[in-house]
Amino acid sequence: MTDTKSHLSRADRIEKLLAAQFAPHEFVLEDDSRKHAGHAGARPGGETHYRLRLVSVAFAGLSRVARQRLVYDALREEFDTGLHALSLDLKTPEEVAGA
Fold it and tell me: How open is the CA angle 19-25-26, to the nearest 5 degrees?
């Protein structure tokens, strides 16, 4: 079996992991690394700072903190290998529809 992880960008790995765990109704991931050049955790190649909007029924009944913990836990390996910051907007489909 070939290790495909090394062939995927961090954004692709994040999308694959979160899609599998949360079956999102909406998924928007933006690489904000260029905005953080020179700041803590920034690297010349980028892929360190992201903004995520994820809409999923998996968040129903969970507090904002519990939702964040689920996402951070799912991405633990990415944080351990260079992901420095992740801005989160986590909603249920009902919350989006009511907005």
Answer: 85
Domain count across the chain: 1
Q: What is the DSSP string of 42-70?
A: --TT--SEEEEEEE-GGGTT--HHHHHHH
DSSP label of 11: H
- Quick one: pLDDT at residue 57? 98
The mean predicted confidence, pLDDT, of the chain is 87
Task: Extract the tokens encoding 89.
Answer: 């907007």
Answer for the pair 67, 59: CB distance below 8 angstroms, yes or no. yes
Q: Give the residue-averaged pLDDT of 45-54.
A: 85
Contacts of 82 (CB under 8 A, 6+ apart): 10, 43, 47, 48
Q: Specify the DSSP class assigned to residue 68.
A: H
| Owning domain of residue 57 | 24-36+46-99
Percent of the chain with pLDDT over 90: 67
CATH of the domain at 55: 3.30.300.90
